[in-house]
């Protein structure tokens, strides 16, 4: 989760809203969780190699049911399968580094979560390239091959291929 800070939030009119968000009951818990996730995401992205940072986001932290040790599982969202596979390779070292920094994260899960709003799904299929007709020499060679083959499934296949190319 990315924490957005806009210059308008620094104005005097916005400060009471920020105060309300941090002091109001259920909303303050939500804001606190959002800040913790933003901090965790910044920490995780700082530990990842630079090439992986663009395709990874923190999806949340889950606490396993019935876990008396209060161990947590970090869920990372990958933009595509290749990013997920690469992050899974560095999960052991990432987990160790997070635990060295005092995190209660006991496990890391990586899930593929493509961005639905990209519009990639609404594209038209790629146009099929126009096939060039078989040359007269090729047709003659296939005709000769058909005549020399004994009666068999191969001869039938060559005959069908010739009919197809003579028609179209």
TrEMBL record:
Q: Which InterPro entries match?
A: DciA-like
Please list where the region (Disordered) is annotated.
Answer: 117-153
Q: Which Pfam families match?
A: DciA
Q: Which domain of life is it from?
A: Bacteria
Which protein is depicted?
DUF721 domain-containing protein
The protein's organism comes out as Cupriavidus respiraculi
